[in-house]
Amino acid sequence: MKTGNDTLRIHSVFYSPKIDRNVLSLDQLTLQGFMVRKSSETCKIFPMFSSPVVNSINEVSGLTKEEELGISEKRRLQDLCAVDDEFKEDYLNSYFETLNVSHEDENDWNRIILRALEFHDFADCKALLDMIDDRDYIFKYKYDLEKKFEEMVR
After folding, report:
1. By the 8 A CB rule, do 145 and 132 touch?
2. How high is the pLDDT of residue 100?
3. Degrees (nearest 5) of the Cα angle 46, 50, 54?
4. Ranges 22-26, 61-65, 100-104, 107-111, most confident
5. Which of 8-12, 32-36, 100-104 tops mean pLDDT?
6. pLDDT of amino acid 74
7. pLDDT at 4
8. Residue environment code for 118-137, b if the CB has 16+ CB neighbours within 10 A, otherwise e
9. Exposed/middle/buried for 19, CB within 10 Å: 0-12, 13-18, 19+?
10. How far, CA to CA in Å, does 148 sit from each of 114, 127, 135?
11. C-alpha span between 124 and 135 (Å, rounded)
12. Distances (CA, A) of 48 to 37, 39, 56, 141, 143
């Protein structure tokens, strides 16, 4: 949808061929995270929790203000994911160090995980079954998988 200089994408819109006007529900827009600012006979739609921006093109980057904001937000999310990944790796390393496993395969995390796997409920059984989706994985860890599968069935 064109709104002045901006292009706005509104999802979950129904096409009604018998209606000859564009009709948008204020409630539906609000549920999707948009805000509508009305003045006399016109209205401006923009994402909630942000101020409307003039979508001008930056002469240096060649990008619109909307594109620059999108790239900035994407970088911020990537940085957050990197922090999360680092936390997960540290957590998993500290967790597996506490497990009582032999040191013969200490660098093979898959084997460590398989040996530490216990079956308390159906979700644990499903986790093992999900592991056997990969043919190469089965070939490499066949012996360990057989033992765990027999344990699961028991």
Report:
1. yes
2. 53
3. 60
4. 61-65
5. 32-36
6. 82
7. 64
8. eeeeeeeeeebeebeeeeee
9. exposed
10. 7, 11, 17
11. 20
12. 11, 18, 20, 51, 55
Let me know: does 35 contact 47? Beta carbons within 8 Å: yes
HSE on the CB side for 138, CA within 13 Å? 8
Which whole-number Å values give the CA distances from 34 to 14, 51, 56, in the listed order? 17, 11, 21
Per-residue DSSP letter, 121: S
| Distance in angstroms (rounded) separating the CA atoms of residues 150 and 114 | 13
Residue 68 contacts by C-beta under 8 Å, 6 or more apart in sequence? 58, 61
> Average model confidence (pLDDT) for the chain?
76
pLDDT tens digits, one per residue of 100-144: 555 555 567 778 877 787 888 888 888 777 777 777 777 788 888
Contact 13, 28 (CB under 8 A): no
Q: What is the DSSP letter of 56?
A: P
Residue with tokens 């390393």: 93
